[in-house]
Amino acid sequence: MVTPNENTNAGYLHLSPNPAKNEIICKIASLGKSEVILEILNDTGEKKFSKKLSLASGYNDIKVNITSFSKGVYRVMVTSSNGKILANKPLIVKK
Predict the structure, then answer these.
(1) What is the 8-class DSSP label of residue 6?
(2) Is the terminal CB of the chain with fewer CB neighbours within 10 Å at N or C?
């Protein structure tokens, strides 16, 4: 299993389900308390979702409603508070 980046405390990202229609669960691992930003971008780089998160140590499940998203491929990113990308995964939205 992939573990968080030891320098940033967070970094593992798993999306379920993928492909998705209505809601996804973003599972983010953290070695300790961390402040991160969860973002979802469309294929042109436009932010469709952005949320600041306070992660606890261990695995954190974040539910995201994607019913307003159009069919397509999106990019889910976890970024540190200083802007470093910790995780980056594709998300397929089917309608």
Answers:
(1) T
(2) N
Q: What is the pTM of this model?
A: 0.86
Q: Tell which residue, 71, 66, 64, has the closest CA to residue 28.
A: 64
pLDDT recorded at residue 1: 35
DSSP structure class, residue 40: E
Q: Which helix (H) or strand (E) is 53 found in, with range?
A: strand 47-55
Three-class secondary structure assignment of the chain: CCCCCCCCCEEEEEEECCCECCEEEEEEEECCCEEEEEEEECCCCCEEEEEEEEECCEEEEEEEECCCCCCEEEEEEEEECCCCEEEEEEEEECC
Q: Which residue ranges form the domains of the chain, and what is each CATH number?
A: 10-93 (2.60.40.1930)
